[in-house]
Predict the structure.
Amino acid sequence: MLKIYYYFIYNKLGGTTMKCYVCAKQGVDKDAVAICIVCGMGLCLGHAFKEELLVKDVIDWGFGEERIEYPHTLPRFICAECKLAREQRIRVTKGKSQT
C-alpha cells in the first residue's frame, strides 16, 4: 500500500519511473521491472533473463571439509549482453579444463 502511495505522490511531483534501456534505444517506452545485477541496466520483462544462483557452503571440521548445497536458490536478473559475456567466459574456462 505504501509503495502505491509513494508511486502516485512521486509521479505527481514530476518524477518518472525507470525505463528499459534496450527498449529506449529502439524508441519504445516501457517501464523497467528489473535491474541487471552486472551492469545496472534497467530491463523490461522482454529483455530480462532470470537465473537461479546455487547457495553452497564449505565447512571445515578440522578433520575434513563438508560441502553443503542448500535447497533454496538466489534469483538474479541479467541483461542479454552480460549473459553473453558470462557464457563466453564459462565456455573458455571449460575448454581450458578439458585439455
In short: The chain is about 35% helix and 25% strand. Strands lie at 34-35, 42-43, 49-53, 56-60, 65-69, 74-78.
